[in-house]
Amino acid sequence: xxxxxxxxxxxxxxxxxxxxxxxxxxxxxxxxxxxxxxxxxxxxxxxxxxxxxxxxxxxxxxxxxxxxxxxxxxxxxxxxxxxxxxxxxxxxxxxxxxxxxxxxxxxxxxxxxxxxxxxxxxxxxxxxxxxxxxxxxxxxxxxxxxxxxxxxxxxxxxxxxxxxxxxxxxxxxxxxxxxxxxxxxxxxxxxxxxxxxxxxxxxxxxxxxxxxxxxxxxxxxxxxxx
Amino acid sequence: xxxxxxxxxxxxxxxxxxxxxxxxxxxxxxxxxxxxxxxxxxxxxxxxxxxxxxxxxxxxxxxxxxxxxxxxxxxxxxxxxxxxxxxxxxxxxxxxxxxxxxxxxxxxxxxxxxxxxxxxxxxxxxxxxxxxxxxxxxxxxxxxxxxxxxxxxxxxxxxxxxxxxxxxxxxxxxxxxxxxxxxxxxxxxxxxxxxxxxxxxxxxxxxxxxxxxxxxxxxxxxxxxx
Amino acid sequence: xxxxxxxxxxxxxxxxxxxxxxxxxxxxxxxxxxxxxxxxxxxxxxxxxxxxxxxxxxxxxxxxxxxxxxxxxxxxxxxxxxxxxxxxxxxxxxxxxxxxxxxxxxxxxxxxxxxxxxxxxxxxxxxxxxxxxxxxxxxxxxxxxxxxxxxxxxxxxxxxxxxxxxxxxxxxxxxxxxxxxxxxxxxxxxxxxxxxxxxxxxxxxxxxxxxxxxxxxxxxxxxxxx
Amino acid sequence: xxxxxxxxxxxxxxxxxxxxxxxxxxxxxxxxxxxxxxxxxxxxxxxxxxxxxxxxxxxxxxxxxxxxxxxxxxxxxxxxxxxxxxxxxxxxxxxxxxxxxxxxxxxxxxxxxxxxxxxxxxxxxxxxxxxxxxxxxxxxxxxxxxxxxxxxxxxxxxxxxxxxxxxxxxxxxxxxxxxxxxxxxxxxxxxxxxxxxxxxxxxxxxxxxxxxxxxxxxxxxxxxxx
DNA sequence: GATGAATGAGTGTTCATTCAT
DNA sequence: CATGAATGAACACTCATTCAT
Lengths: 226, 226, 226, 226
Known about the structure:
Four copies of one chain form a homotetramer.
Chain A (H helix, E strand, L loop, with lengths): L2 H19 L6 H8 L3 H8 L2 H23 L6 H18 L1 H10 L5 H28 L8 H24 L5 H20 L30
Helix pairs in contact in A: 1-2, 1-4, 1-6, 4-5, 4-6, 4-7, 5-7, 5-8, 5-9, 7-8, 8-9
Chain B binds a DNA duplex through helix 3.
């Protein structure tokens, strides 16, 4: 079996185990067993637990950002782009719960070394959102411009809300990615004030999404204890 | 030295160490040393690492909810109450960064046993926010009412945004609790849509806050490694 | 409360705990709690775990030898004396199971220091039995005399059989001290050879034993775990 | 070095240490050191102190029963079979004093879990002896038969006496397995009564035993303390 | 390329023992 | 006389990591 394939299997197993147990509680033994290889092979290919975790973070961070990037429909107005990006985001996190736990929960918990990996990904997403907000302000001929610091805070709040909603959607049965995205768009774009007076945000016209998107969220079987 | 005092010292040390290292990476040796006592005494008073962590969570969860409860100014309109509550929340988390890390990061990462403790606290806060949203809808004579499921999602998004902003404010120099609260109020209440057209939310008139609130945030010295 | 009484309470508790747990597994905490006193007091009166165990052994060894000595009816033939002594022995061990476990099981397991204490008691009993055998030989005008080494072995076998039967009687419901003694007398005095040909040993005439002897054996309540 | 061999080395060391120190006082460190391996390897192969002790008991119980079974000469009268079985028993216990201590002393002292392992072995031996007694009764045309309860007690007494004599022979210099067996046969078969009148039991004719049997008993060097 | 065999270093936890009061 | 407070030393157990083959 070629090395590249074996490596991906190991990373798959590692994401599963790290996602469910956390960095420290995960054991290399369990990862090797789940990957179906011997422990020395894991070390041969991936050097150390540290490096293995880093590799997981990198792979999953890239997968997530590419999923979002691919999901954003070009040519729409800023709110339409945000809407489509959020749908892609919630869909991806729902389908890869262990990866999401690794990125959002565990990677930020164990040392700067890992946190910076995630921070890079997050910064990319925040930058994308920041652009959208700025573009929206331009479209609205807002003058004077929103101060940059304010925009940074708004982008942070939006991304933070999205992350929390991803956790919530993952933990709450019956909440689909689409619903989560709609809730967030209402909340963020219209604002509670407008919602009170019956002026909600509504999604732009768009082509039908791919068939998988509305499918029930993949739920990875929990790892057996003992 | 009386037992009650020693116990609080131990909890102080434990929150520090758990907050910085995480549950698994924290060692009872380090906690005991930081508390200035021997390890057996920690076990005599707090039974086990598990129980010690639970005790930390309980104490800090209670401290946080009471800080928020005490910070909410009664008699104001819903947005005013939310505003004051958020200020208290950001102030408390900024002043107790390790406690906030324990509650928001580590407690949710290691087993249902701990997660439920935090979930109870969080549910209390979400319930408070839910009431505020409902009250705001009533005040606005909104008709028909917002569906309950939608309100739950909105409250979740608001609390999630607040939590993320607390992390962000803690990690970003120069962001005060007041600024974080203002950003979130703008984002959540006015919404990005209104912000684009220059209709931001603005804080209600209120008495001056206590002197400590604007003070520089206490930054616990990081624990030396090695 | 006078010191002597307190000391006896402590020894009572210690015998209970040592008997049920063994020397190493017994904890001074549990002994002190069962005795109803604080731990330092146990140390004040009895110095150390070692000394406490030794004190238990000495007290119970003396109690057992005195019970046997008091039970032997003087003026009888050797087999009658042996019979009455065995009855006293089985009665005492049945009524004091923890003490018997301490002496027979635990004291011989943990270091010469304790073993010699028990060996002294045992030597006394073996000497008594040796005398009986010699006396029986004299009564029977056995000539030439049994060699001394042979007598020592026989006494040892008899005492060993008695000890094992005490364990067996303690572990088997429905076996009384009297039955155990009768079985042993048959076995030892008549021998299997005679038993096969229908010539069992039978007890001599004797006055009624004290009322307590046939009573159900005291069963100390087992110590609660956890 | 292959696993099976290492495992036996570990069990050898464990029997030594458990036999000399007892279950609780034995430390895994000492066992590992005596076996010439590191502690983790002991755990890798034998799981836990509990399981290690159980493995020792099982191995030694099997070794003892097989030694006795192999030692019993078939085709002899009951007393001849008992005689040969006892010789094998005393020979085996004398050659494996630590194993005998584990089985007879320590395994019965620490929890039902271990006691049942030994009880199974003991039950097998008691059953064998019971058969012999019944066969002897049959040969002697004894009528009416000995009651079953009585036979159980006699077998118990015989086995108990054998066990105690094994301890005694192990502790007393100059007592060979053959002597111990002879003493017990005299005691048990002829009975003290007959011995007094000069009617001892005498061994049946048999082929010469193997050369090892009369050899000086192997005395394992005691483990150095400190 | 792949693994069975092996370990150094560290973890949570317990217990006999001692003071200051 | 009696105890609440405190600890040094040890133990069972685990894990990331490395060779020889």
